[in-house]
Amino acid sequence: MSFRIGVVTFPGSLDDRDAARAVEMAGGIAVPLFHASDDLKEVQAVVLPGGFSYGDYLRCGAIARFAPIMNSIVTAANHGFPVLGICNGFQVLCESHLLPGALTRNSNLHFLCRDQKLKIENTKTIWTSGFKPGQEILIPLKNGEGSFQCDDETLNMLESDGRVIARYVDFDPNGSRNLIAGISNERGNVVGLMPHPEHAIESLTGPSTDGLTFFTSVLHQLVGR
Amino acid sequence: MAKIIVEVMLKPEILDPQGQAVASALPRLGFTFAKSVRQGKRFEIEVAGDPTPAQLAEVEKAAETLLSNPVIETYIVKIEK
Prior knowledge:
Chain A has about 220 residues and is an alpha/beta fold. Chain A contains five helices and eleven strands, in the order E-H-E-E-H-E-H-E-E-E-E-H-E-E-E-H. Chain B has about 80 residues and is of the alpha+beta class.
């Protein structure tokens, strides 16, 4: 049996198809979910993809937070439902207060698109359990507002609780505090990541296949539930 | 007609690269007055007639939930004649 993983399409989502493809490559069943409906269609996990939801007007992710589908996702996530937010999805998770902090304009002001090396810091979350502790991976990074910011208290909490799941290595792309590329919630079921694992699942189109592990991780974790 | 104004600024401790870019562009144009620049957002909200205290309270709520992100921003609400 396989598991149903939902991929939400907001107006302005770009990477929903790649995310769905990554789910299928990992062995899951990708289920398209629509922003305007609150129906989770009996999926067992959800991916919020990259893009520019609602044009990123006001602030990235600010308007998507109030989409009907997000009401269902926030309620489910608070009960342990797995959610992965990639890039714009990470911004939506922060705006929804499922994750602390906020993503702001890259410190160098440039939209950056590059293959970025990351170090996986936490392999206990539902989405990172397939990695080895300290494993270095190479996946695409592409954003204009990827600088992770939070107050000192939140930063200390994230660090001391081991909730930083990935950090930028060798190059600081955006001025994120402590080079943070991704974080999780306390339970480890909600993960936000700025770079794009769904673009690194096949050697033909990606710099590696390292990204696939995020999607195989959740499927393995769902088996154990 | 009076308008309700909401001004949103990044908190002082949050890096503002846009403001910094403006600050560094000013002297290139011969403007030497600026020690620093911070950039924010301004919302002009029209209501029918003069804003009532109830409407202002609602705007406060909207400013806190949608117009600003309290994690990184602060806001002020005021009336402009």
